[in-house]
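Moderator note: this is an archived Q&A kept for reference. The question asked for a predicted structure of one protein chain; the sequence and the answer are reproduced below.
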Amino acid sequence: MEAHVDERPAERIHNAWLHSVELSAVPLAGQPQRLWLDLVLGPGDDEPRVHLQIEDRSLVELTIAEARSIGTHLIGLAALGAMEGPPAAPA
């Protein structure tokens, strides 16, 4: 793999599934922020880690179990929020 030519095998970092989401709830200087999500397997890691970062703020590193738990809670909160929204106007 071309990206690892100059790296010793024990120092290689493997990234997968880099994704970002625009966050418009709390804009900074009138501009939406971007949340970056990444799956990383670093040197000596037994399992990949999920990285979350909003723009240039501190990186949050999660285990797979932590990411799964947070994901489940986010889905539940989003579903609850959608149910408690204002009633739809009659057509």
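Archived answer notes: The first strand starts at residue 14 and ends at 28.
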